[in-house]
């Protein structure tokens, strides 16, 4: 199995397009970091008297709430956070390298895009090149070949995610200062204030962002295995990735809305937000995600192992 | 002698089309087996079933005692193949392509890869990317890939395709040596029948999914009538005498062409001489595989 994965890895990095994606990605993040330093001035700076500053903020917000009750939700949350900070002596975050790390979570969707392209090609290209015929006449079962391809795709995504995290930390430290990784981060969960170290909070956020990536990549892999067409796989996966939220919003009032894949892909909704659809819980979403994941893999496996390699 | 590969009543239906019908034959170690058939006869389908790319509806293919669909991996260990074109990864070097396929087999050392590269004569270009290779070089790389794991059965679809005459001769000699020295069973399919005639010991002809004829080349030669060209004067006399002996007489330039069994040539020569015909040359040509092939497949209509 490991030699099969080495083979896939070798083929992946022998292709120029893979390197182009990686270089593009590094440039994008570095460019973004440069843009942030020159174009971004933090609006609020908290100094040594941050407790007074926060109290002042709270008073202002309370006043606003009376005048404009519509903002009550947001302001109420903010007031609670500020009070928690004052009580527990946790200074608010000035914009630091960690904020940069967290903001760069956005780039996970770029990683999704690149990994979808790779997943879409991993089987379809073997058919396009005709090499599938030489690949499948070895004393290795088709199941193993399929699995090695899928694992390689996941390894590529993992490599990119770790790369993004480390590069963001490096650039963040260089340009904004990183502070210590045990720095506490406070956030609200269902109206309750929670505290976590900044490192584990950041890792958790990246983890949640990767769920959507995993699902869409597996979907693209399935389309590639079933239809042997990488363009179709890229197209459908990216379309679904972009329109997922709209699909959920459109069907939100139906009873079966919570069974839609995209109602469940954002696990962050259970930690720092409110669920999209009433009745959704973390265990339910994880169950749904597992079912979809297995469904995609089983479909790929059934078609790939049973197919007659007729014309390639 | 025990066969190394055995097809047992293999049937294959694609859609509503019964492509392979009760196909049975055996291949023996050390022989070069020519697999012939017009386009669409089921040749490629049969080869694809032999290497496990396609499933069969009924019947079995057994390689060295292992059923292709029940003990697939065991069977595949014994087979090396090029199916249609030798399509490798164009963006990698020839060497990396071979390393790739070596990793998928068992016990293929780096020395073995080097040995195979040398065997097919690609030493100088093995580190070039495959997209820079000519068709002939790809063909050689394809053969190298098929030989890495020392298979007992080698299946080559159009192996001399794209090779120049010297390359063809080289590959032909190499195939012969593999069969005779290393006792490999080689299955070759090609459209160039004269090519096959030079290379193969035995032929199977498949037509509309059925095996129509299996015979050895030597049988084919023994069976065949000779086409005899006699250069003689006076031509008219020669023609009259020959017409008494056989029905198929044609005159062309200063020659008469007749179709005869080999044994009758001396007798006819004597008759001509007795009738004062001057003979300048007698040239014989046996019927080619092509003629045999066309006879066997009839009008060549594909059902």
UniProtKB/TrEMBL annotation, chain A:
Asked if the record carries the keyword Transmembrane helix, the reply is yes
Kindly state one GO CC term assigned in the UniProt record.
plasma membrane
Which domain of life does the UniProt lineage start with?
Bacteria
In Pfam terms, one family for this protein is ABC2_membrane_2
Q: Which residues cross the membrane?
A: 12-35, 106-124, 145-178, 198-223, 230-252, 284-304
Q: Name one GO molecular function term.
A: ABC-type transporter activity
Q: Indicate yes or no for the key word Cytoplasm.
A: no
Alphabetical keyword list: Membrane, Transmembrane, Transmembrane helix
Protein name as catalogued: ABC-2 type transport system permease protein
Q: Which organism is it from?
A: Salimicrobium flavidum
TrEMBL record, chain B:
Q: Which residue ranges does the record assign to the ABC transporter domain?
A: 5-233
The identity of this protein, by name, is ABC-2 type transport system ATP-binding protein
**Which keywords annotate this record?**
ATP-binding, Nucleotide-binding, Transport
For this protein, the record's Pfam families field holds: ABC_tran (PF00005)
Keyword Nucleotide-binding set for record:
yes
SMART domains in the cross-refs = AAA
In terms of domain of life, where is this protein from?
Bacteria
Q: Which InterPro entries match?
A: AAA+_ATPase, ABC_transporter-like_ATP-bd, ABC_transporter-like_CS, P-loop_NTPase
What molecular function terms (GO) are annotated for this protein? Answer: ATP binding; ATP hydrolysis activity
Q: Which family does it belong to?
A: Belongs to the ABC transporter superfamily.
Q: Does ATP-binding count among this protein's keywords?
A: yes
């Amino acid at each position: 199995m490991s030699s099969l994965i080495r083979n896939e890895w070798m083929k992946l990095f022998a292709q120029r397009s893979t390197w182009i994606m990686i270089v593009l990605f590094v440039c994008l993040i570095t460019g973004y970091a440069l843009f942030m330093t020159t174009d971004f001035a933090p609006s609020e700076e908290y100094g040594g008297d941050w407790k007074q500053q926060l109290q002042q903020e709270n008073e202002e917000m309370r006043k606003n709430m009376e005048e404009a009750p519509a903002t009550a939700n947001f302001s109420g949350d903010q007031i609670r956070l500020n009070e928690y900070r004052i009580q527990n002596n946790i200074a608010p975050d000035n914009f630091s390298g960690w904020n940069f790390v967290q903001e760069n979570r956005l780039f996970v969707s770029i990683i999704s895009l690149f990994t979808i392209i790779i997943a879409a090609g991993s089987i379809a290209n073997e058919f396009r090149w005709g090499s599938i015929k030489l690949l499948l006449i070895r004393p290795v079962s088709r199941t193993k070949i399929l699995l090695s391809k899928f694992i390689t795709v996941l390894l590529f995504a993992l490599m990119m995610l770790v790369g993004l995290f480390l590069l963001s930390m490096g650039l963040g430290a260089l340009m904004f200062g990183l502070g210590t990784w045990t720095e506490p981060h406070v956030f609200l969960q269902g109206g309750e204030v929670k505290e976590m170290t900044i490192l584990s909070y950041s890792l958790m956020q990246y983890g949640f962002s990767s769920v959507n990536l995993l699902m869409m990549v597996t979907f693209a892999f399935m389309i590639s295995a079933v239809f042997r067409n990488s363009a179709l796989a890229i197209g459908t996966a990216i379309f679904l990735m972009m329109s997922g939220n709209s699909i959920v919003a459109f069907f939100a009032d139906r009873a079966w809305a919570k069974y839609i894949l995209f109602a469940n892909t954002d696990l962050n909704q259970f930690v720092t937000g409110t669920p999209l659809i009433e009745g959704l819980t973390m265990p339910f979403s994880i169950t749904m995600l597992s079912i979809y994941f297995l469904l995609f893999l089983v479909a790929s496996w059934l078609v790939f192992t049973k197919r007659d390699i007729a014309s390639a | 002698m025990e066969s190394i590969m055995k097809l047992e009543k293999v049937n294959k239906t694609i859609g509503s089309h019964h492509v392979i019908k009760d196909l049975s034959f055996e291949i023996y170690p050390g022989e070069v087996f020519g697999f012939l058939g017009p386009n669409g006869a089921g040749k490629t389908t049969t080869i694809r079933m032999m290497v496990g790319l396609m499933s069969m509806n009924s019947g079995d293919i057994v390689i060295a005692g292992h059923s292709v669909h029940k003990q697939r991996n065991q069977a595949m260990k014994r087979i090396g193949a090029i199916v249609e074109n030798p399509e490798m990864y164009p963006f990698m070097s020839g060497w990396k392509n071979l390393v790739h396929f070596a990793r998928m087999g068992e016990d293929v050392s780096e020395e073995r890869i080097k040995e195979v590269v040398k065997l097919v004569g690609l030493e100088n270009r093995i580190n070039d990317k495959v997209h820079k290779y000519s068709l002939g070089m790809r063909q050689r790389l394809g053969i190298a890939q098929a030989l890495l794991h020392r298979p007992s059965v080698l299946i080559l679809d159009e192996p001399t395709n794209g090779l120049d005459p010297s390359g063809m001769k080289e590959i032909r000699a190499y195939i012969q040596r593999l069969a005779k020295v290393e006792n490999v069973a080689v299955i070759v399919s090609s459209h160039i029948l004269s090519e096959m005639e030079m290379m193969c010991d035995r032929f199977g002809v498949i037509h509309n999914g059925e095996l129509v004829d299996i015979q050895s080349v030597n049988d084919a030669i023994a069976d065949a009538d000779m086409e005899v060209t006699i250069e003689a004067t006076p031509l008219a006399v020669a023609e009259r005498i020959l017409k008494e002996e056989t029905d198929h007489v044609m005159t062309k330039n200063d020659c008469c062409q007749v179709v005869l069994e080999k044994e009758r040539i001396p007798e006819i020569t004597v008759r001509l001489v007795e009738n004062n015909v001057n003979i300048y040359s007698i040239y014989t040509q046996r019927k080619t595989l092509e003629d045999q092939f066309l006879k066997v497949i009839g009008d060549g209509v594909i059902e």
